[in-house]
Design goal:
Strand content: 25-35%
Strand order of the largest sheet: 7-6-5-4-2-3-1-8
Order of helices and strands: HEHEEHEHEEEE
Shape: globular
Radius of gyration: 14 Å
Structural class: alpha/beta
Largest sheet: 8 strands, mixed
Low-confidence stretches: 1-9
Length: 143
């Protein structure tokens, strides 16, 4: 087993409560499309959310629009923080990666976060590598 993959499976991630609030608001505002963006911070602590425009017109898919994606990456670099994960919403389904989410996952070192808006907002996190999806424990840090 790849050592980096094992490290991603171990330990708990922390996401700041304000980040959860902002990403939920963003994803609700994108309905009926999926909302998406980048999560960043340091180590296993997520301190920032960078919304990225979804260029998909379908309501069950997302892909980053190039300009807003590059703007987010530039801001992460300017703030000297790390890209930790990608967040996207599932407007009508549970917070579990779809077949397409798994097949198109760009980087096994990034965590996958999904916000279900099916009923009450429900956030879940995963590691995805070579077609395998594993849940990641996380806690919300009240700031």
């Amino acid at each position: 087993m790849n050592r980096n993959w094992k490290r991603r499976e171990e330990g708990t991630y922390w996401i700041h409560s304000e980040v959860v609030h902002v990403l939920q608001e963003h994803c609700v505002n994108q309905l009926p499309q999926e909302g998406c963006g980048i999560l960043a911070g340091s180590g296993r602590e997520i301190t920032s959310f960078f919304p990225v425009k979804n260029q998909e017109e379908r309501t069950n898919a997302y892909s980053f629009e190039a300009r807003s994606y590059l703007t987010a990456l530039k801001e992460i670099r300017n703030q000297a923080i790390q890209w930790i994960g990608i967040i996207h919403s599932h407007p009508n389904t549970e917070p579990y990666p779809s077949f397409e989410d798994i097949a198109r996952w760009p980087d096994p070192m990034l965590t996958c976060w999904i916000l279900s808006l099916k009923e009450q907002p429900n956030l879940a996190a995963f590691s995805i590598r070579e077609g395998t999806c594993l849940p990641i424990p996380y806690r919300v840090k009240v700031i």
